[in-house]
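Sample 1 of the test manifest.
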Amino acid sequence: MKFSIIKKTPNSLARRGLLQLAHGKVQTPAFMPCATGGAVKGISAEELQSLGYELILANTYHLYLRPGEKEIRKLGGLNKFMNWPKPILTDSGGYQVFSLGKNWRALNPRPNYSGEMAFASLVEVNSEGVWFKSHLDGSKHFFSPEKVLAIQNDLGSDIAMVLDECTEFPATFERARESLAMTHHWAKRSREYWQRFKNPRQALFGIIQGSTYKNLREISAKYIASLDFDGLAVGGVSVGEGKTKMYKVMRWLGPWLDKDKPHYLMGVGEPEDIMEAVKRGFDLFDCVLPTRLGRHGTVWVTTNWQKFRRLDLRQAQYRQDKKVIMKDCGCPACSSGYSRAYIGHLVKAKEMLGMRLASLHNLWLINELMKKIRQSI
Amino acid sequence: MKFSIIKKTPNSLARRGLLQLAHGKVQTPAFMPCATGGAVKGISAEELQSLGYELILANTYHLYLRPGEKEIRKLGGLNKFMNWPKPILTDSGGYQVFSLGKNWRALNPRPNYSGEMAFASLVEVNSEGVWFKSHLDGSKHFFSPEKVLAIQNDLGSDIAMVLDECTEFPATFERARESLAMTHHWAKRSREYWQRFKNPRQALFGIIQGSTYKNLREISAKYIASLDFDGLAVGGVSVGEGKTKMYKVMRWLGPWLDKDKPHYLMGVGEPEDIMEAVKRGFDLFDCVLPTRLGRHGTVWVTTNWQKFRRLDLRQAQYRQDKKVIMKDCGCPACSSGYSRAYIGHLVKAKEMLGMRLASLHNLWLINELMKKIRQSI
């Protein structure tokens, strides 16, 4: 992997860069659509390319459970499998383990960090790794820092992520510190594993945690920097802590991150949040929002590319709205002339085409935003 | 509407024709994909055009219930609403009323035509029309021959269909005769209504019923011919009676139909059945099969365009199958290189893209078959 900074701005930490990966080049700042189960929901590889995307994210947790990383390896790797020729970043699977685990019925109560008894989730963390149950069939599985790297190696992604503990929000300082210790322990083991089994066609990114505590974030930034990963990711900033705290964390971290490495802000996809994060020096973003909102008939619109509004096309006010989603929009839905009334009708009628048109619009809008951001730097 | 026969074959009733409708020309024999709720499931208007379709079918029952024909009229009609510039045929809604009604819990037992008590469906037929309950909210609605024409007029389709009673299968001769009498009564009223309120931009097709009884089919063919509709449709041939009986009905009817009018065989979409029906003089076909099979991961393949096989890509045998669905196939899925293994995985993972790729393949294959059929005549 090679990362070059092409241009910087004098009045912020924003930078335009070029990421050279095994499967090609990626202009940054860039947004990655999420191909959760091996596809960005409803959108083909050709469509993603024609929307202008150069890098997508695939989920290790989902692909490990189905069809299995060994199956994908035998089929020639994730790129071949998905028929996507450009770079792919795979997450570590940790986020899904923790977030899906949270929703499950508690198994055994155990003391929490305040000394009170609490219900454990179906996720059992110990220093070795994390036990979890499949959301598909309830079967028990184990992820360790080493194992998720081996899985990502089988998948053959361009960028692999280390396993981290996604600290729940809110977390007390003590809980956040203890959770961070686990994340650091795993990061170190990831680094050691990587030094022994490095795949020259795959870059490895470390993840900074520390919840909303400034000194924990600072400790984490320094520690993860010391392990000299190819890139630096920041986790736990889009977990329900609200914009104010999210922006605070971005502002702290921006100046602490090694300027020569790509900076990936995980799970952030609201247009305004991306714009703010770019100013703080972040280069990569991922989020399920464009397709998740789209599937429910909600679309982003903007007139000035500074402020963005959401329209819920299922609402009665759009029943007779012949206009396209957004004026002068170049997305496949708007440029073909599909009306708000039609898309709203389709989503209400649970017709796949409606979800697709709204998702295509949102994906186009985010990529267009990234283009405009890059041009403005 | 104008229908011209371009070419005939000496050894069968097959003919190549051109149907000129308000929104353009349609080469026949032609297959119509079904846009049930205002969209062919998951497929955009541009995709249908680039697959080569010139005529699609939209469902009056579904559009009447949601968003409502008046809403669509205010939005400029069905073509504008769906962003589909080419011809549309709307069914009468009758088939949905009867077929959806059948699945509902019985309300009141009443004597059937064998004199035994039977459970009535939620559909109540009398000579005025048919009462039915919405499958969306259970609300009660009434369709009469006149009302479904008024609805189709609001929708603004190129071809409207008369209301008929879809005789259940199996039906005794007495039941089939009585049901046919209702269909004829409604056809006559449709004709009278049409003479008073004719829309010059809309053609009207009559429907021949009569179950699997030769003399009833003959009576119906003559009666419907006497009403001088723009086209002749044959209903009740794909209702579970099996291929042998379906083929028998086609063979009887072929020679009886007015040669100067287009012949539409309703609900038939299996490749072999279409090929057989073309030889019997049929010009138009519709069926939900291409997209229904596709949504479940089943695709048609053929090597010689005479015999067709179904592959269920969810089966274990395709887990490591790197091949495209069909060799030398020009469909969007195969020509982009998506593998059977990938599509099977996506369908199993309930990923929309899998359903779409399989549906696009099936729709492409049927249209390609129609092209080959036309070329062979």
